[in-house]
Amino acid sequence: MYLRLPEVRQQCDSGQDALIVKIETDAGLTGVGEVDSSPLAVKGAIDGPYSHTITCGLGRLLLGEDPFETEKLWYKMYNANIYAGRAGVGFHAMSGLDMALWDIKGKALGLPVWKLLGGGFQQKIRCYASSLFGPTPQATGELARRLRDQGFGAVKFGWAPMGQDEQTDVALVREARRGLGEDADLLIDAGLVWDAKTALQRAHAFAEFRIFWLEEPLRPDDYEGYRKLAAATPIRIAAGEEESGRRGFLELMDRGKVDVIQVDLTRCGGFTEAMKIASLAWDRGVPVANHGFTTYINVAAALHWLNAIPNALICEFVAEEKTNLREQITKQKLRAKDGWLEPPQEPGLGIELDEEAVRRYRVA
Question: Residue 332's domain spans which residues?
Fold first, then answer.
């Protein structure tokens, strides 16, 4: 189901539309998932017809199957869509379907997904308020103060106007730090704007403001650039939201040598693949965080996953103030308390759609 606000602003805010997946069972249970991608491309990947042995719409592959067999069904989808699904949109579509299957399993057994995954590492998970930069350094500082006053001990700003010039870049970070005060953690998302040399210069310039990490300063496949950057600065380098599947994360870790990998449950292959990615990171001593800038379905999924792995670092929690679908389409409205979130305890994902809102925003 493709949902969209009546007006979509020209900015990097993926909460303005959504691709929601529902899987219904003959037992009367319905699973819900989400995909943060190109929505209509994903819809085509799921709803498409059979073409031939290794190119098939993913939805029809699940008809008549047992939703408990998530591992088998993951590989069935992968193998039947090798032409189009080994990365990118095809993998994103698998993510939403896998998420919905785990939601069904949890509801059938009366258990939260994190318990099905064998988790229980944390009673509460530290989160950071995630926002786009303000239009000016001064506006960013004011926004930082508002988020600090809401109780967040960690705040991230990202994307435009970062990348215009050095003076603006430094001013954005300086004013963000000033607004947050000295005790809070400041995270910076550059938004893919530099080459490795420029990113290293910015990392040195940002060092006096004690940033927690520098996220995605380079193109996602510039693994050599990431390797050089990570080796040359004590600031954590974080990346991974553009990756789909464990192979991409292995490239980031083994070639790029990034310090933190960021896994989006709606893009990486769902829970089934995210658990494998976390294990690969654990073997390499790399902490992981989620990525999620969309709805509370994504946030809930991330909390289940982070509670099921030993190397969770922190949780992204969107605090973008402008109108988006996040507060509209689910019955549950997740809230941080003093910068912490509690893993859901309800069966499955613990999140339900507001069907009236879904109808209101659904695009035919």
Answer: 125-341
Q: Is residue 216 part of a domain?
A: yes
Cα–Cα dist 293/11, whole Å: 13
Task: For residue 288, tell me if it sits in a domain.
Answer: yes
Structure tokens of 298? 């994504």
Residue type, 107: K
Query: Are residues 194 and 245 located together in one domain of the fold?
Result: yes
Say whether both 99 and 234 belong to one domain.
no
350 belongs to a structural domain:
no
CA distance 339 to 297: 19
Q: Which residue has the tokens 């998530």?
A: 70
pLDDT in tens, the chain (364 residues): 999 999 888 877 777 899 999 999 999 999 999 999 999 999 999 999 999 999 999 999 999 999 999 999 999 999 999 998 999 999 999 999 999 999 999 999 999 999 999 999 999 999 999 999 999 999 999 999 999 999 999 999 999 999 999 999 999 999 999 999 999 999 999 999 999 999 999 999 999 999 999 999 999 999 999 999 999 999 999 999 999 999 999 999 999 999 999 999 999 999 999 999 999 999 999 999 999 989 999 999 999 999 999 999 999 999 876 668 999 999 999 999 999 999 999 999 999 999 999 999 999 7
Kindly state whether residues 194 and 71 are assigned to the same domain.
no
Helix (H, G, I), strand (E, B) or coil at 188: strand
Q: Are residues 106 and 141 in the same domain?
A: no
Strand locations in the chain (E):
2-4, 17-24, 30-35, 50-52, 55-56, 125-132, 154-158, 185-189, 211-215, 236-239, 260-263, 288-290, 312-318, 340-341
Q: Is the distance from CB of 301 to CB of 273 less than 8 angstroms?
A: no
**Same domain, yes or no, for 182 and 310?**
yes
Instruction: Give the CATH number of the domain where residue 165 resides.
Output: 3.20.20.120
Same domain, 106 and 157: no
